[in-house]
Amino acid sequence: MCCDSKRRFLLLYATQKGQAKAIAEEIWQQAGAHGLEADIHCISEMDKYNLETEKDPVVIVISTTGTGDPPDTARKFVKKIQDKTLPPDHFAHLQYGLLGLGDSEYMFFCNGGRTVDRRLQELGAQHFYDTGLADDCVGLELVVDPWIDGLWLALKEALQLQKEKEGMNSAVDAVSSSLSPAPHAVHELKLSSEVQNLKLEDEGARGSDVLSQKLDDINLVAPARDTEPSLVHSVPPVSQSALNIPALPPEYIEVQFQDTQGENPHLSSLTSEGTTFEVPVTKAVQLTREDAIKTALLLELDIAGTTFEYQPGDAFYVICPNNVSEVEELLHILGLSEKGDDFVCVRVKQGTKKKGASRPQHIPERSTLKFILTWCLEIRAVPKKAFLRALVECTSDAGEKRRLQELCSRQGASDYTCFIRDSNVCLLDLLHAFPSCKPSLSLLIEHLPKLQARSYSVSSSNLYQPGRLCFVFNVVEFPAGPSRPVSRKGLCTGWLAELVAPLLHPSKNSLDTKGESSSTGKISIFPRPNNAFHLPADPSVPFIMVGPGTGISPFIGFLQHRQKLREQHTDWEFGETWLFFGCRHQDRDYLFKQLRCFHENGTLTHLKVCFSRDSSAAEVAPPKYVQDILRLCAKEVARVLLKERGYFYVCGDKKHMADDVSDAIVDILSMEMEVDRLEAMKILAMLRETKRYLQDVWS
Predict the structure, then answer these.
(1) Are residues 412 and 547 part of one domain?
(2) Which residues have CB under 8 Å from 275's CB, separation 6+?
(3) In a domain? residue 374
(4) Flavodoxin-like domain spans which residues (predicted)?
(5) Is there a single domain that holds both residue 142 and residue 265?
(6) Residue 226 — pLDDT band, cuts 50, 70, 90?
(7) DSSP assignment, residue 284?
(8) Same domain as 552, residue 440
(9) Beta 315-319 vs 454-457: how paired, if at all?
(10) Residue 646 maps to a domain
(11) Which among 116, 323, 449, 485 counts the fewest CB atoms within 10 Å?
């Protein structure tokens, strides 16, 4: 359906995992209630829109991936607008508003959106609405919801201004009369409790009957004596409020069971990243003692005979399945236990109201039901509010229905954050908590995101171990909690640990420990592009590595590579190398005691280790954390970074380590250069900009 040019705006999204797309679709759904029509496209579909000739306002929703890169779907677009030959007035005609998504746990927060925003400004484009930057660390909705609220008045004014410029005042009057005033809308994005919200009612709902239910009209899930809210129980004021809930997303998928048999698609079809490699696991070693708090495993893959290439410091993806028992449990709840191996055909529902509806790219047109639930859908994903809204319609119990409405409403935003988002609740947890909720298979395909491959740092050198690729990981544990009654292992790490159980040798704590001679299974992998976390091109340049816990993983590859280069090129000059490593206990989780060998043979010039939980009888307590040892080596660290123009690498946990290391470096620079902290922060920013301070971190 063609958009009415009098009230049209162009809506573009660039998504990596589906968040930006879901938000863009919410904007598209709300637009109709405000007399507007959104012409929505993925930013990669450059044949369907043209910013060079676009006259209507443009709204862009864009996420950030990796260490601050635009999402894969925006690569071509960003490359196009980064063309240095474009004149500074190239987009002078363009009016736009941009909503960036990111996570402040990472250094380059919302850098995907910032990159596009900055470049559009450089090319002359004008904001018709202030840029919003939403933080997944605290909850995207804290910025997204008020940003969308304020969008409608800003769009109305932008369209009116556009028509006035074209001398079409009469058309402007028509548009204005079709748009009800929005006194709550804001020009500047102010995140406060006073922000008023639009009341979004369901299509076809009579008034606000459903939204304004009184407390005594419903049967609460939990006893009235409960005074604390929970996943299934609310308290005033939420429990007594009229609710502003999202519009019901239109259904657009239908699933048909088929009697015919066949073969499931190959796993390589699940990714658009190019070639995937199915490789055997040839070795598995448990690096931690049984009584260590975390279990760390090293796996070795046989990549000989493949074209898979890597450098030390690279990362790669592992394609992993959902947990078998969780898939079976979901089939049971859906009443489809007997149909798991049946083939289904997934197609767009005829007559759907969803604009531009298409079968999700990660869902094969034809496969078994179990294949879709095992390999295609992230069944552990935290449900978005649009999904909760759809689940309301599948719930028969009045109390459960009301609570789901609350959790997806504006009034229940804090409950959603606490009991769903922060508690990492998934679909199975919801279905157990709300047993009268019986969603259809098509609803799951519409709302569950793509099962993402998991990324791991390479912990080896192809020069040192030709035809082998190693990586290290902790087996992640998610404990049970009030909103999640069962504990779970990490999706990929738990699967890998189970897969290699036959290979695990009883002898621990040795990198040279040999696993069983026969391999135990194969996994599918593919390389992760655009990684700058590599050794200096000039071997004479010194570098410092900071990697506590499994953060040491890429540095094993660095040192293996450096050792081989030293053996092969005795006439080369090699810069000094520093490694700062930390763990809880020296005897339980000192992952790579092979480090001592690197130190003894000169590959590693300086080895500094600390153990945070070991007691000491020394008069002066030894340093507990890597940032503490860095401060003790302040003069040497400053010399390597400033005088010798060395490199600094950090790998590991972002929240509990990388930020502390960054603070320590700022302190060191401030002290050794005798400058204030602000100036030291500028120097660190320069090191980042010139790729001499590099991070490979996770949250």
Answers:
(1) no
(2) 268, 307, 526
(3) yes
(4) 9-152
(5) no
(6) low
(7) E
(8) no
(9) antiparallel
(10) yes
(11) 485
pLDDT band at 167 (very low <50, low <70, confident <90, very high): low
Q: Per the domain annotation, does 35 fall within a domain?
A: yes
Specify which of 58-72, 215-229, 359-373, 473-487 reaches the highest per-range mean pLDDT: 359-373
Please check whether residues 52 and 157 belong to one and the same domain.
Answer: yes
In the sheet that holds 366-368, the strands lie side by side as 253-258, 343-348, 366-368
- Sequence-separated (6 or more) residues with CB below 8 Å from residue 169: 163
Q: Within this chain, do residues 265 and 153 fall inside the same structural domain, yes or no?
A: no
CATH number for the domain spanning 156: value is: 3.40.50.360
Query: 115 φ, ψ to 5°?
Result: -60, -50
Instruction: Give the number of other Cβ atoms within 10 Å of residue 678's Cβ.
Output: 9
Q: Whose structure tokens read 């279990």?
A: 295
**Mean pLDDT along residues 86-95:** 95
DSSP character string of 148-209: HHHHHHHHHHHHHHHHHHTT-HHHHHHHHHHS---TT--SS---STT------PPTT--TTT
Q: In the numeric block, which tokens belong to residue 128? A: 């018709």
Q: List pLDDT tens digits, range 174-183.
A: 445 544 444 3
> Cβ-count burial of 405 within 10 angstroms (0-12 exposed, 13-18 middle, 19+ buried)?
buried
* Structural domains of the chain, count: 3
Q: What are phi and psi of 109, to 5 degrees?
A: -60, 125
**What is the per-residue pLDDT for 529?**
65
Torsion of CA 532, 534, 538, 542, to 10 degrees: 110
Do 159 and 264 fall within a single domain?
Answer: no
Tell which residue, 424, 422, 420, has the closest CA to residue 408.
420
Tokens at 96, concatenated: 């736009």
The residues near 600 (Cβ < 8 Å, ≥ 6 apart) are: none
Last residue within a domain, chosen from 98, 130, 164 = 164
Residue 146: exposure state from Cβ atoms within 10 A (0-12, 13-18, ≥19): buried
Average pLDDT over residues 488-505: 92
Question: What is the DSSP secondary-structure string of 481-501?
Answer: -SS--S-EE-HHHHHHHHHTG
Same domain, 557 and 689: yes
Find the CATH number of the domain harbouring 429.
1.20.990.10
The residue out of 400, 427, 447 marking a domain boundary is 447
DSSP assignment of 650-676, as one string? EEEEIIIIIHHHHHHHHHHHHHHHT--
Residues 160 and 264 placed together within one structural domain of the fold: no
**Coil, helix or strand at residue 135:** strand
8 A C-beta contact, residue 49 and residue 41: yes
* pLDDT tens by residue, 91-104: 999 999 999 999 88
Taking residues 22-48, report their average pLDDT.
Answer: 90
Q: Is the pLDDT of residue 200 over 50?
A: no
pLDDT in tens, 337-357: 999 999 999 999 999 988 778
Which residues form the domain of 388?
A: 253-270+321-447
CA distance to 31, 59, 168, 201, 280, per residue, from 175 (Å): 13, 19, 11, 22, 63
| Model pLDDT for residues 309-333, shown as the tens digit of each residue | 999 999 999 999 999 999 999 999 9
Q: Which two tokens stand for residue 363?
A: 């869902």
Nearest Cα to Cα of residue 158 among 130, 184, 128, 185: 128
